[in-house]
Amino acid sequence: MSASDDKSGDIMSIPGAEDQIDPATFEQILEMDDDDAEREFSKSIVYDFFGQADTTFKKMDKELEKKEDKYLKELSELGHFLKGSSATLGLTKVKDSCEKIQHYGQLKDDSGTKDITEEQAQEKLGTIIKQAKTEFKEVKEILKEFYKDDDA
């Protein structure tokens, strides 16, 4: 049985996908494709997300480095933005890390319930942004594998 025998290529068969992607959510994106073989629509959404995430992580790095007025608010907003995009695609680890970025930028703990100091937030933001970038890089490789072109 080849990969093309199962339902238009199962993303969950790619190593690491089960830890990174919610299959039900991602399947909803795939259902929007007109042609299962080409998957042009979902691929464009996913590849647009890659660009958004790269740009957003660069902005996060700048804000964390500058530590100017309202940088925590900006980091929170960037985390919120990326959380929404990654949730739409079912990218669970990236979404969870971005939610923490959002909370830390609001001087809250992981769950968003307890207050933390600005120093704690800075330390946690440095760690979680690095983690989110690693998770993004991992899921990006999984998705690139999924959308691999036959003639690539």
From TrEMBL:
The keyword Phosphoprotein applies. One of its GO terms (biological process) is phosphorelay signal transduction system. One of its GO terms (cellular component) is cytoplasm. The modification Phosphohistidine is found at H80. Residues 38-146 form the HPt domain. The keyword Phosphoprotein applies. One of its GO terms (molecular function) is protein histidine kinase binding. Residues 1-23 are annotated as: Disordered. Pfam families: Hpt. Keywords: Phosphoprotein. It comes from the Eukaryota. SUPFAM superfamilies: Histidine-containing phosphotransfer domain, HPT domain. This is Histidine-phosphotransfer domain, HPT domain-containing protein. It comes from Decorospora gaudefroyi. The lineage of its organism: Eukaryota, Fungi, Dikarya, Ascomycota, Pezizomycotina.
